Amino acid sequence: MIRPIYSLMAAIIVLVSVTACTVQDNVQEQAVEMTDNSGNEKDIVKSEVAKGINDMPSQDLNRDNILGQTGVLKETNESSPKGAHFTYLYTDEAGDEEILLELYARNIDEIDLDEDGITELVALMPGPLMSARIYDLVDGKISYIDVNEVLGSNWSSSLNGVGNVKREYLKDLQAGFENEDGSSRIEVYSFKDLQPIYIAPLSDVKM
Description:
2 helices; 21% helix
């Protein structure tokens, strides 16, 4: 009777060992899969700048023509709380990828500011105060202005995405000024070929 008991105990030990090996193999396979997935993460995010992305219902933004160029791709790299490196790319007639514009900024909005069919870029530049740059195609060349320098404002930014603003003004910019008595005011401007056009105080364009 002793020998059958020994045989039964040996069988149980073998079964437990096989089960443990199987569980260990599964854990190792899962660990390999997790490692492979983490290795697939990309530092660069490329997205097509196309009509309809982030559009407001009342804005007719033509995203098919970025600074006079069609078929543009927007590449974002080296993102941080201070900003990111943006590259706008297109493919020429020979099939080669060309750089339309490279810029380090906190954020960039693609907006047809003057509704001329060419989408301008409104870049919020890095720094302690908000400072907007506008890039436009003027006389066949890509040019830009620093809004604070042009207006003499303390800060400036796009109204795109700002709450409580009437939709027809979301393609415009706001700029902050300091009055002689120490008080402050915020004004709204539109831009045509990089030239500012005063619209109203910010309070007048709010809902």
